[in-house]
Amino acid sequence: MLWMLLSLCLVTRSFWSYNSKHIPVMPVTNCTMGSSSCCFAVCAFICVSLLVAGVDGRGLNHGEGQETFLLRTRPQKSLQFSSCSSFKIALFADLHYGENAWTDWGPLQDVKSNKVMSTILDEETPDFVIYLGDVITANNLPIANASLYWDQAISPTRARGVPWATVFGNHDDAAFVWPIDWFSASGIPQVHCSPENSPFPETEECSFKGTQRLELMRNEIECNMLSYSSDGPKELWPSVSNYVLKVSSSGDQELPVAFLYFLDSGGGSYPEVISSAQARWFQQKSQEINPDLRVPEMVFWHIPSKAYKKVAPKFLIHKPCVGSINKERVAAQEVEMGVMESLVNRSSVKAVFVGHNHGLDWCCPYEKLWLCFARHTGYGGYGNWPRGARIIELTQKPFSIKSWIRMEDGTKHSEVILSS
Ligand SMILES: [Zn+2]
């Protein structure tokens, strides 16, 4: 039976590939893996699910001689501690894929970023990855579908079967900005839409508007079983990456050990703010799911809030702050519209994590919580400070949050306890 299904998958894939090659008009792509791969992935997932169901008996009902297959088309959207007691998260910040995409230099940076992530994933073997914004440099992408670059950025995590979630930064859906060196002597810019190393067909038309947040997010979600991202409540759009995930106990999937909140701090196609509507959404949501403040909470977004300026070390980083680089001023959101007040009013909120400033990697206490920077992970974007990633490790009993930075060269530094 299973072999029949696997054969069907392969036949379906071959058929789909054949048709893809022979249908002259193909969309840029609704799925960055390509329709055939996407179809194959869905099909393969069904086969594997059946295989798993067959091996451990889950999902099979043998009652009264009938076999009923219960299939999940997507994983349940809660994360869980494994039987050992820690849950580890890696933060990949500011990857900036697609930088100077029309040059040889640009794609080379993406290859290097890929290597950084692969090294850290293999070294730390995290249970979950958070892409903390500026996944791509959309203002360098003169093409219709930035999702292909987005897809490249998540591929090292996907290839290792590690689930992930994403939030938007200020570069992810920015409109294309003409580089000055594209202007010829006559003042007429030359169009470079399909460089040799571009994954796009030559017929692909140029688009300079950028791919909007919603499209990027939907593409990621629809094409990836391991994505825990969400396009958030409609009433908050065009602010898209607003959602919450539960990390459950190893013994009971209903029992939360921590909540992870994701907020869209704007930038790109609209102002760099967390709006009062988002702050209200956070208040309502947190009150609804964690009314007695019993469950610890952590918050992730891209652009630091103004509160980061208040706690920033002046020159050297010293206690109570912990970190290794303090090379620039905090580039904060344009205005504070209430989210920080909502956070400090909840004793359950332990820490906020942001990216955006590539030259900062510290954590400092603010009121009763911690404000942390991630670490510049990508070779795209400004700055030549060595690349790395912030790691967060949660333990269940007793509950604790430990964090450190793992560098591309394998070294580890800036360990700090964020739960005390
Ligand atoms: Zn950045």
From TrEMBL:
Residues 87-358 form the Calcineurin-like phosphoesterase domain. It comes from Nelumbo nucifera. Keywords: Signal. SUPFAM superfamilies: Metallo-dependent phosphatases. This is Probable inactive purple acid phosphatase 16. The lineage of its organism: Eukaryota, Viridiplantae, Streptophyta, Embryophyta, Tracheophyta. GO terms for molecular function: hydrolase activity, acting on ester bonds. InterPro entries: Calcineurin-like_PHP (IPR004843), Metallo-depent_PP-like (IPR029052), PAP14/16/28/29 (IPR011230). Residues 1-16 form the signal peptide. It comes from the Eukaryota. Pfam families: Metallophos.
